[in-house]
Amino acid sequence: MSGFKVAYFINQYPKVSHSFIRREILALERQGFEVQRIALRGWDGDAVDSEDLQERDKTSYVLQDGIWSLLASTFSMLLNRPRQFLQALRQALKMSHRTDRPWPFHLVYLAEACRIVPWMQSFGASHVHAHFGTNSAEVVMLARFLGGPAYSFTVHGPEEFDKPQFLKLREKVRHAAFVVAISSYGRSQLYRWVDFADWDKVKLVHCGLEPAFHENQQVPVTDAPRLVCVGRLCEQKGQLLLVHAVSRLMLSGIDVQLVLAGDGEMRGEIEALLRQSALQHCVHITGWISSEQVREQILAARALILPSFAEGLPVVIMEAMALRRPVLSTYVAGIPELVRPGEGGWLIPAGDIEALTEALKQVLAAPREELERMGILAHARVLRDHSIDTEAARLGRYFMNTAGAEFSFAEP
Fold first, then answer.
1. How far apart, in whole angstroms, are the C-alpha atoms of residue 294 and residue 328?
2. Domain 5-208+389-401 matches domain 212-385 at the CATH topology level
3. φ, ψ dihedrals at 336, nearest 5°
4. Which pLDDT does position 2 carry in this prediction?
């Protein structure tokens, strides 16, 4: 693996909610890979982790120099590689047919591809990997048409599975060297939307945690009725339902303290509901916090609560389990592959307010010894299946297997 050069292309990097990408990159570097970081944006975004600040200094940003740099790169590619440029242009226009974004967006993706191809070639990248099956996957696909390296991408969900046809997921996989699913559920959804001939391209690589998460000393579970929900404040995570459940507990005389660790587009709506329900004294929203602060919030709670309506496989569940805290979540996507009811926590049907309220009562009433027993079982499970070094090694082997792969242009 030593000396193998791979590029990473990401919409925004670093990003508070995407620490799993940073972990993957750093794990690859520990194993001897040389990794080039390329992102569309993120040079001026909020970063609260010192590691994210370091990653920002290592990243090249496509949009940082403005539109003129994109135009210059596009004209240079047209002049120097006219045949490949026209093939990529045809593919970009093909990708714009019956999608949620009109053709000008796809021409911008082509310009971005023109910008990154020289960077990757100067670096000597043998492969490029993108995260998410959205526009980032299209950019690396178009870069391949322009003569760039073989590409792959990781599909996380749920966005990709909400609109796979609009995203042209089948087309992106058809030209890819391989595609990564982060759970068996995600793999099954890719099987639904890609050609059967491409099923062998679908690889399972879990998100993972660093050894520091696994090797922590056990911290006793608090006797306080304190719970934590970590995640972006958005419609997918179910925080509004959680606030309703907390209101029911308080009205029935059950004391509870809830921390919503995160921020997002639904913060105003959640704060309005807290005022309406007079819950400001027992529900606290932190805003974006660092990885170390997330760790502190999880350790200070009896359990992690994540009543999601849609997911991929949340990394924060792995973090809580690694910290020996049980998890209360939903039978959604890949979550049941990680959380086993009665062993590492509780699972409930998504959107079921009665089930959520009852499960919260069980978490709050459970003796410390029971919660710690669950935490130990959860720790063992995540240690076995979600070590970042193990998963990065698996991903790295897939990268190396694609080195020098031939590429044929699509027929007209």
1. 17
2. yes
3. -65, -15
4. 56
